[in-house]
Design a protein that fits this description.
single chain; 451 residues; alpha+beta; Cytochrome p450; 5-stranded mixed β-sheet; 46% helix; globular; disordered C terminus
Length: 451
């Protein structure tokens, strides 16, 4: 098969005039049809004219192609122009500085060093230390809503557990979770007038989040504690630790990614069960039997991060198409997770799907999601508790979708269920001494969680 140039690719598929900058299309949930046209028209790698929004880009919509791009980081750079679809301001030195110090925007070897340092807080052992605490928090969250028989699933259920997990990991007051929620919503909802009034609010949210991070690390440098903050600010055996600015960038990505992605995975997972009630009945009948495969299917179905960008730094052939050095490339994870080449009947939500080689946490390579184990644990804990205490949960209104082409967000989802008494769950003490439990060795400490 001969290699196609950009001009040849455009001439062969002139009817694929899709505008993936149309945020309203995403809010209407019509983007799947546009992405399907790209994915199912050969060769599956298509040049998209962006008009005034940018120089144009190659849309990657098939799973095999996405994995190849993700795993070929020496060709497809995250750092060159960042991972967002919009064009960076090349005159803005602060923007470049952020790309150089933000984990998702780094390339190896800088990314390798940074990830090795922050990974100390995300090993399976460290995540396991959180499990009992987050199980307790899950029960407390449902205690707040079960007696009413109705709630907004997004703000009162799905959002709470990721926020409380971040609060515990970072050793910050649980009551500050509302501030984190507000700031991250502004970052993600910058194109949604319900979320922000204008760009100045997004800028202020960044300033507030950075200020909070600075104060958090200043407190912990002077008063070490058993939490991830102290762990990351303390030099390891090789004498390396995160700098102040590196820590600030980590705090930003943890707050945004840890909150927005898991919250929307839980919400969209619940919506999938509503659309496929046979799967909910099967799950409720035996959650433990189906949990492992159900969690993976929820992540595939939700795919909360719709796309990431790369920049080709040298010529490369992908799917018979020649991508030139300097070309912009956008990987559409949401399209790849509906690719019929990779999934049998991809539009069916199937909690027994196996194998399930989804790209909801990335398509392998150096940027595989650092928090995948934590996200899966939170999804597992929440759905087990919902199945036990709200088995007849059902929607009583339409979901309110986020206006965004980046995050598949849900702002509201009204639900109802048979009211049941609160279990009056006793609140477990927080794990780290930073949380006020002096002398304990919890998350970030040196005591293993009992098996």
């Amino acid at each position: 098969m001969s290699t196609k140039t950009r001009e040849a690719a455009v001439m062969e598929a002139p009817d694929l005039d899709v505008d993936l900058w149309d945020h309203d299309m995403f809010q209407r949930q019509e983007h799947h049809r546009a992405l399907e046209r790209l994915r199912e028209t050969d060769p599956g790698v298509h040049w998209i004219d962006e008009g005034d929004m940018g120089p144009g880009y190659w849309a990657i919509t098939r799973q095999a192609h996405l994995k190849e791009v993700n795993r070929t980081s020496e060709v497809f750079s995250s750092n060159h122009s960042g991972t967002q679809m919009f064009e960076p301001d090349t005159s803005d030195t602060m923007s470049q500085y952020q790309r150089d110090h933000m984990l998702i925007d780094m390339d190896p070897p800088a990314h390798t060093r940074y990830r090795r340092l922050v990974n100390r807080g995300f090993t399976p052992r460290m995540i396991g230390l959180l499990e009992d605490y987050l199980q307790n928090r899950t029960a407390l969250i449902l205690d707040q809503v079960t007696e009413r028989g109705h709630c907004d699933f997004v703000t009162e259920v799905a959002a709470e557990l990721p926020l409380q997990a971040i609060a515990e990991m970072m050793g910050i007051p649980v009551q500050d979770r509302a501030r984190i929620f507000e700031w991250t919503n502004m970052f993600i909802g910058r194109e949604d007038p319900d979320m922000v009034a204008g760009p100045e609010e997004v800028t202020q949210a960044a300033v507030d989040l950075y200020s909070y991070s600075h104060q958090l690390q200043a407190d912990r440098r002077g008063r070490p504690a058993e939490d991830i903050v102290t762990t990351l600010l303390t030099a390891d055996v090789d004498g390396e630790a995160l700098s102040e600015n590196e820590f600030d960038m980590f705090f930003l990505i943890l707050s945004v990614a840890g909150n927005e992605t898991t919250r929307n995975s839980i919400t969209r997972g619940m919506m999938a069960f509503f659309d496929f009630p046979d799967q909910w009945r099967k799950f409720v009948a035996d959650p433990d039997r189906h949990m492992a495969t159900a969690v993976e299917e929820i992540v595939r179905w939700a795919t909360p991060v719709l796309h990431f960008r790369r920049q080709a730094v040298e010529d490369y052939e992908l799917g018979g198409v020649r991508i030139a050095a300097g070309d912009k490339v956008v990987m559409w994870h949401i399209a790849a997770n509906r690719d019929p080449r990779a999934f049998e009947d991809p539009w069916r939500f199937d909690i027994e799907r196996s194998p399930n080689d989804h790209v909801g946490f990335g398509g392998g390579g150096p940027h595989y999601c650092l928090g995948a184990n934590l996200a899966k644990m939170e999804i597992r804990l929440m759905f087990r508790e919902i199945a036990r205490r709200m088995p007849d949960i059902h929607p009583v209104g339409h979901p309110n979708y986020l206006r965004s082409n980046f995050i598949g967000g849900i702002k509201e989802l009204p639900v109802a269920y048979t009211p049941t008494p609160s279990l009056r769950t006793a609140t477990m003490g927080r794990l780290g001494s930073a949380a006020g439990v002096s002398g304990t060795a919890g998350y970030g400490g040196h005591v293993e969680r009992p098996a």
